[in-house]
Amino acid sequence: MTWKNLFDKQECEETIARINNLTPETAPQWGKMNVSQMLAHCNVAYETTYTDKHPKPKGLQKFLIKLLAKNTVVGPKPYKKNGPTSPVFKISDERDFEKEKNSLIANMRKTQELGSAHFDGKESYAFGTLTKTEWNTLFSKHLEHHLQQFGV
To answer: InterPro entries, alphabetically (predicted)?
Structure first.
């Protein structure tokens, strides 16, 4: 499957328009997270890229994540509904909808503005060096999964 190219301004803005269709009352079609938690969950992918907020896996843990999860995250197949989530991505506390939505949109625009060349060959949080295509898949596939989850 091909994913939106979030390095492309128009495709990024199309995805942002879908996010802007969410409201604090938007209910999931599956899963346990509410919409604010989902937005916070999606922000983790960017937080692990742009901040040191989450401790990076090391040694055997990183090796196993790379071995067992990399192809699922950056490969072509869509995520399955109710699939397993890495502990760092689990959001169980209440979150502020507007804050999380605005953070996600800012993270997406930052990524788009940095562009694919910035990401090509960049080290990821848990998967080692990724190509620009793998980085786009990491961001785009994850967002697509959760935007479908919330019907936008």
So the answer is: DUF1569
Spatial CA neighbour of 32 closest among 117, 146, 134: 146
Distance CA 108, CA 139 (A): 9
* pTM of the full structure: 0.94
- pLDDT (tens digit, 9 = 90+) per residue, 134-145? 999 999 999 999
Q: CA 110 to CA 66: how far, in whole Å?
A: 26
The answer to whether 98 touches 88, Cβ cutoff 8 Å, is no
The candidate with the shortest Cα–Cα distance to 62, out of 82, 39, 83, 88, is 88
**What b/e readout covers 52-62, taking b as 16+ CB neighbours within 10 angstroms?**
eeeeebeeeee
